[in-house]
Design a protein that fits this description.
The protein has 230 residues and is an all-beta fold. It is built from no helices and 20 strands.
């Protein structure tokens, strides 16, 4: 499928939403999308449609955008407990997952039909093909890689998802209102990255974190050409 042509408005600093947390400075905000919405993908097995881009009707907040600090160095530590991705109503839930390198992901199947998890990645250790029978469970431990891991079901073409793997904990995925909150950051100058994988929208921005000055951001994305991409 063709990639989407994207234009991005300027990042706007808005008054802070909360204070400084112990050990770092709060960076939070909202990712907003104001462009047209592409046609939803039919899911005949579930008698429904899946929306490629989801936004809040009141605020235009964009769901499933990944926000992270690029190039961040973090000391080696024990990976967090395993994350979970379900296959429910013939869809991956969540649609976008962000984890740390070395973290294990458990793939569930809550449907009454057979599913699979076909993972494509530039990193061979993140590429695999698993069978997930009804009520079944399979796990995979991911390593750090450039670019997200794309997931599909080899049995049902409408199913798709993404997993981002980072070698530090300074990342977040926006919620249904488009809001995000990074773990507290030490003061310094950083490169902030924003990406919505399904819409192929992205933004890079310098971020300056000052001691005692929590930051709230509003980032607005605009897509000019509405073409389908899973």
């Amino acid at each position: 499928m063709k990639l989407l042509a994207v234009s991005v408005l300027l990042l706007i600093l808005v008054p802070p939403l909360s204070g400084v947390e112990p050990g770092g400075v709060t960076v939070e905000g909202i990712i907003v999308y104001t462009g047209p919405l592409p046609k939803p993908v039919p899911v005949p097995e579930a008698q429904c449609e899946r929306h490629l881009i989801e936004r809040d009707a009141k605020t235009n907040g964009l769901r499933d955008a990944v926000v992270w600090i690029e190039g961040m160095k973090a000391p080696a530590r024990k990976p967090p407990r395993k994350a979970v991705m379900d296959q429910r109503a013939f869809a991956f839930v969540p649609h976008v997952l962000a984890i740390e390198a070395g973290q294990e992901v458990e793939f569930l199947n809550s449907d009454g039909a057979n599913h699979g998890v076909l993972a494509s990645s530039s990193e061979p250790r993140n590429a695999f093909n698993l069978v997930t029978p009804p009520a079944g469970s399979r796990t995979h431990r991911f390593v750090s890689c450039r670019g997200p891991v794309r997931l599909g079901c080899p049995i049902h073409a409408s199913m798709a998802a993404w997993i981002f793997v980072f070698d530090h904990p300074f990342f977040a995925v926006t919620d249904a209102q488009g809001k995000f909150r990074l773990p507290p950051l030490p003061p310094g100058k950083y490169r902030l990255e924003v990406r919505h994988p399904t819409g192929e929208m992205r933004r890079t921005r310098e971020l300056i974190v000052e001691a005692g000055k929590p930051t709230a951001l509003r980032i607005e994305l605009v897509r000019k050409d509405a073409q389908e991409k899973r």
